[in-house]
Design goal:
Elements (H helix, E strand, L loop, with lengths): L2 E7 L2 E9 L5 H6 L7 E7 H15 L5 E7 L8 H13 L7 E6 L1 H13 L5 E6 L2 H7 L4 E6 L2 E8 L4 E5 L8 H18 L1 H9 L1 H5 L3 H21 L14 H10 L6 H18 L5 H13 L13 H8 L5 E2 L2 E2 L1 E6 L2 E5 L4 H12 L9
Parallel strand pairs: 2-9, 3-4, 3-5, 5-6
Antiparallel strand pairs: 1-2, 7-8, 10-11, 12-13
Helix pairs in contact: 3-4, 5-6, 5-9, 6-7, 6-9, 6-11, 10-11, 10-13, 11-12, 11-14
The structure holds nicotinamide-adenine-dinucleotide (NAD), the ligand O=C(O)C(=O)C[C@@H](O)[C@H](O)[C@H](O)COP(=O)(O)O and zinc ion.
Protein name: 3-dehydroquinate synthase
InterPro entries: Dehydroquinate_synthase, DHQ_synth_AroB, DHQ_synth_fam, DHQS/DOIS_N, DHQS_C
GO molecular function: 3-dehydroquinate synthase activity
């Protein structure tokens, strides 16, 4: 299946999201960006380089002047300014100028880091996203949020910088580990919960095909998620308001990710944060407790953690970590809650006591029932 959609800003088309089964059309798509006399630097991590860099470079070489490859070690712990510095050095040594372009080949770590380098090198050069994880195909490659972590502070240094193209080859899902695939489902389920109750139902109805990575079902899912994310970022590209709902599950999620020093993956932390936010939405009487319990079950069934009982984390340190993060907005914590399944809202009134109560829910074992 082949599909595409356009992302607009202020009503003007900015870039296309292209969905293909493999990389056969990548060269053609990149050629349409006028790169014949340009250098292209493929930026990727050590795992993805082994799997896909040869195929991608074979697509790019015939359509541009020269292709370079920059590889850094895989893992969130390398999404930092040291790696950005190495990449700046590489670009300078190879005489990259403002007409040249970067190609982010990999998951969200590669996309965020490469996008940030593109946003800042020579005050901004073009880049494209070639996302290879489910998470990056449905979320991080779209919308222009780029950045790196600073110490363990998530995405603390960054810029909004839109890609010129997002090219997804769905078959790259087949080489992901189960754990990494599940991480993408964390953001996918988030999309249903915040914007589209029918999609949330559809995900549950197609769970077996999704987990078996039936490519036609996965492509349908990626397209719906891309549409949801596209529709939100078009309304609010720089997160002045509504885009904040894409942060559902991230207030506590980022705090847990930081405290675990990235030993828990982003999608896993989003799942934990979402379970807690659903619990709090129920506690506030926005959704029913049955719905909150069912949300927790859905994350669990897609292979995501729903308990932090086995980690050495206290509720107090998690709450303290939320206050030390970008989620503080004019002295108030920014929390995303659900009015109902399929409709989220931004709340700045969540108290420490409420966070404490909803964290109780994550302290139980995964087989334990309601503790809230
Ligand atoms: N910018 C945004 O809007 C946005 C949105 C969501 C998440 N993020 C960021 O994205 C990051 C998480 O992204 P991620 O989950 O893709 O992690 P990741 O980029 O670390 O990729 C996960 C792992 O899978 C490997 N991998 C990638 N593609 C593969 C493939 N096709 N086959 C086998 N292995 C493959 C990678 O080498 C890595 O080890 C976090 O840093 C998060 O903050 C950003
Ligand atoms: O695109 C957005 O906006 C999001 O919030 C998507 C999130 O899934 C993503 O993790 C994002 O990087 C979080 O951004 P941050 O500004 O909270 O660091
Ligand atoms: Zn996220």
């Amino acid at each position: 299946m082949s599909d595409r959609m356009t992302v607009h800003r202020d009503g003007k088309p900015i870039y296309d999201i292209v969905m293909e089964e493999n990389y056969d059309r990548l060269g053609q798509e990149v050629a349409s960006l006028s790169v014949r006399d340009r250098r292209l630097c493929v930026v990727t991590d050590s795992t993805v380089a082994e799997l896909y860099s040869d195929t991608v470079i074979r697509q790019l070489e015939p359509v541009c002047r020269e292709v370079h490859l920059f590889v850094f070690p895989a893992g969130e712990e390398n999404k930092n300014l040291d790696t950005v510095r190495d990449l700046y050095e590489f670009l300078i040594q190879n005489h990259y100028d403002r007409n040249d372009m970067l190609v982010a080949l990999g998951g969200g770590v590669v996309g965020d880091l490469c996008g940030f380098t593109a946003a800042t090198y020579l005050r901004g050069i073009r880049f494209i996203q070639v996302p290879t994880t489910l998470l990056s195909q449905v979320d991080s490659s779209i919308g222009g949020k780029t950045g790196v972590d600073f110490d363990a502070y998530k995405n603390m240094v960054g810029a909004f910088h839109m890609p010129q193209l997002v090219y997804t080859a769905a078959s790259s899902l087949l080489t992901l580990t189960e754990e990494q695939f599940a991480c993408g489902m964390g953001e996918v389920i988030k999309h249903g919960l915040i914007m589209d109750a029918d999609y949330y139902e559809w995900l549950q109805a197609h769970r077996e095909e999704i987990l078996a990575r039936d490519l036609s079902v996965c492509e349908q899912m990626i397209l719906v998620s891309c549409r949801i994310k596209r529709d939100v970022v078009e309304q609010d590209p720089t997160e002045q308001g509504i885009r904040g709902i894409l942060n559902f599950g991230h207030t506590l999620g980022h705090a847990i990710e930081k405290l675990m020093h990235f030993h828990l993956l982003h999608g896993q932390c989003v799942a934990l944060g979402s379970v807690a936010a659903a619990g709090l939405s129920a506690k506030r009487g926005e959704i029913t407790m049955e719905e909150a319990l069912q949300i927790r079950e859905v994350f669990f069934q897609f292979g995501l953690p729903i308990s932090i009982a086995d980690f050495e984390l206290s509720k107090e340190e998690i709450i303290a970590a939320t206050k030390n993060d970008k989620k503080m907005d004019s002295g108030k914590i920014k929390f995303i809650l659900l009015h109902r399944i399929g409709e989220a809202f931004i709340d700045r009134t969540v108290t420490d006591e409420e966070m404490n109560t909803c964290l109780d829910w994550l302290m139980g074992g995964s087989d334990e029932d309601e503790r809230i």
